[in-house]
Amino acid sequence: MNQYRFKRSFSADSNLSNKLFDLVEVVFPGLGELTECGRKLGASWEDASTPFIRFHDDIAVTHVGVLEIPMQIMGQAVTVGGVHGVCTRSEFRRRGYYREVIEEVLQYCDKRYQTLVLTTPNPDFYTPFGFRKLEEYVFKIRWDSQSSRDGFRILNFDDAKDLKLLHRLLETRTPVSNIVGVVKEKAVFCFNEGSRPLYYAEDLDLIACMEIEDTKLHLFDIVATQICSLKEIIDRIPQTIEEVTIYFSPELLDAGDIRAFPHLFDETVLMVRGKFAAEGEKFMLPRSARC
C-alpha cells in the first residue's frame, strides 16, 4: 500500500485520473458526467483540484480533493480552500484511511489557507477535524409582475462565442454579494451549473442561474460585471412572477422587503474551518460555488 501525495494537477497523468474517477463514480454514480461537462466547458476538475489519494494494490480507495475558491467575504478578498470529492470505497471503510488522508489534507491546507469550506449531508464526519456548521438562509419576496418581454436566451456551449462569453463573465464578474460572493472562479461553477440551462440577457451582459416553477422564480446566482436590480431581471422574464426565492445574500439587488429564512440547501450543511468573517450573518453560499 502507498499514499499518493498531493500534486497540483493530474491532467497530464491520465492513468491517475482514470483511477480517481473510477473511485468517484463508484461512490457517487453520475458524477463522471458532471466532470465531463466541466471539461467540455474548459474548466476541468483535473486542472483545478489538488488530489490526495490512498491506494491499495494500485486501486484508489480514498480521495479528498482541495480546490481554491477566490471569494469576497464581508467586503474583503479571500482565497478559500474548498474541500470536495471526499469518498472511500465501501469495502475499505472503517480502516482509518479517511482519517489518514484528511489529516494530510489539513497539514497541506493550514500552510496555504486561513479558511476552508465544504458542504456535506454528513457533518459528523468533519467536526472531529475542526470544521463547524454555519446556518444558511434563503431570501423571499412577493412580487407582482405581468408577462414581460423575453430578454433572456439560453446559452449554447456548442457555439464558441457563447463559451467565450461564459469565460469572460466568470473572469470579470463582480461578487453577487458583499457578504459572501465568488470572483474569478470557473471549475466549481462549471461543475455545478454547466449541465443546467444558463440564461443570458444581452442588454445587461448578465448570466442568471435561475429556475421558474409556475409563477415562482428561484434565483441561484448572477454572473455579471455589474449587479443589476431584481426588477431588471424580472422585467426580462416573459411570464407572471408572484414570488421570488433568492439563494444568496440579496443586498445588492435593490429589491425592498425581502425576508430571510433558515434553509438547508439540498440537504447539505455548510461547514467551515478557520476564520470566516460572515459567521453570524444571514447569507447562503451560492449553488454555483458549493463543493
UniProtKB/TrEMBL annotation:
In terms of InterPro entries, this protein maps to: Acyl_CoA_acyltransferase (IPR016181), GNAT_dom (IPR000182)
Annotated N-acetyltransferase domain ranges read 7-164
Q: Name one Pfam family in it.
A: Acetyltransf_9
Q: What is this protein called?
A: GNAT family N-acetyltransferase
Superkingdom of this protein's organism: Bacteria
| Gene source species | Funiculus sociatus GB2-A5
Q: List, alphabetically, the PROSITE patterns matched.
A: GNAT (PS51186)
Kindly give the SUPFAM superfamilies that the UniProt entry links to this protein: Acyl-CoA N-acyltransferases (Nat)
